[in-house]
UniProtKB/TrEMBL annotation:
Protein name according to UniProt: Carbohydrate ABC transporter membrane protein 1 (CUT1 family)
UniProt record, GO biological process: transmembrane transport
One Gene Ontology cellular component annotation held by this UniProt entry: plasma membrane
Keywords: Cell membrane, Membrane, Transmembrane, Transmembrane helix, Transport
Membrane topology: Multi-pass membrane protein
Pfam families (alphabetical): BPD_transp_1
Species per Swiss-Prot/TrEMBL record: Paramicrobacterium agarici
Length: 316
């Protein structure tokens, strides 16, 4: 009886049943992906297509209130690219991005190295602190920092008055001057972005073999040489990807800049890409769409350069 059952199990399935089973295996993954794909197309694809169409139309306040939009081709793009305000915003955005990437990557790497040196208790303490900073909503973070730099009751002005023994900092506004506005903005964004870099780099550092580091130390290599010639090559791809992500995130920063402008910053002097598009979109959706696609094109150029460089390094 047992032999008969095992023989029946080992017999190949009839051709028709086999084809049916094969077809089901091919279709099942697509059916499982279909709901997520549909939601993605509706939630992301439709606004993207609509924005692309608007960028080729005259879509001002009249069109927002029901007037038919007029097709004007590339006029929104040419107007944007010849507008000095756009290039001023682009310059500020890229300068802010450069400062943020350097600050975030530098601090993140230092904290990750520190986490490899301290014992488990302090490593846990640092991890909790980083997670709290990372988990805090951007608006809440900006409001808390806004209290610290408040003109009348801010902690920063009080500390500076106490340290200098004067009242020179009483009533000083850190947000009305564009330079100090960007300094505060840099501190806030760096504070929120460092945890991601620190955790990512720390995960990479745990993959560096201890034997190699010990062998280099026995050969007389100092900490700087061990980091430059052993640790850095292991982390190169991680650092590259993290830097690219930071560039993209820092270029499209919006919440922190917009909230800080609401606390006292002058938007016309402190706009970055995100806030500029938002302010432009309140009166001209066509121009806002054009600026959005130009910004996306700039980010794609940055991404493609780094992706190609990574692929080339991997081939070598």
């Amino acid at each position: 009886m047992t032999t008969a059952v095992s023989e029946a199990r080992t017999q190949p399935a009839p051709p028709r049943q086999h084809r049916k089973r094969t077809r089901r295996r091919r279709v099942t993954p697509w059916l499982m992906l279909a709901p997520a794909t549909l939601i993605l197309l509706v939630m992301t694809g439709y606004p993207l297509v609509k924005m692309a169409i608007n960028s080729f139309q005259k879509y001002g306040k009249a069109q927002i209130f029901g007037a038919p939009p007029e097709w004007i081709g590339l006029k929104n793009y040419t107007d944007t690219l010849t507008d000095p305000t756009f290039w001023a915003v682009a310059g500020r955005s890229f300068a802010l991005m450069a400062v943020l990437v350097v600050a975030t990557m530098g601090l993140g790497i230092l904290i990750a190295l520190l986490m490899t040196r301290v014992n488990a208790f302090f490593r846990l303490l640092i991890s909790i602190g980083l997670l709290l900073a990372w988990a805090m909503p951007p608006v809440s973070s900006v409001v808390v920092w806004g209290w610290i730099v408040d003109t009348k009751y801010g902690l920063l002005n009080w500390v500076l008055n106490t340290v200098t023994g004067t009242t020179n900092w009483s009533g000083h506004s850190w947000l009305i001057d564009p330079l100090s506005f960007y300094a505060v903005l840099t501190v806030i964004i760096t504070w929120m972005s460092v945890p991601f870099v620190a955790f990512t780099v720390y995960a990479g550092l745990t993959q560096v073999p201890d034997e190699v580091l010990e062998a280099a130390q026995l050969d007389g290599a100092g900490a700087v040489k061990r980091f430059g010639f052993i640790v850095l090559p292991y982390l190169r791809s991680i650092l590259l990807i993290t830097a690219v992500l930071q560039m993209i995130w820092d270029l499209r920063v919006f919440t922190q800049a917009y909230t800080l402008q609401g606390l006292g910053g002058i938007s016309s002097q402190t706009d970055v890409f995100g806030t500029y598009i938002f302010h432009l979109g309140s009166s001209n959706l066509g121009a806002a769409g054009a600026v959005s696609f130009i910004m996306v094109a700039m980010m794609l150029v940055i991404s493609i350069y780094y992706v190609r460089k990574t692929v080339k390094d991997e081939e070598i």
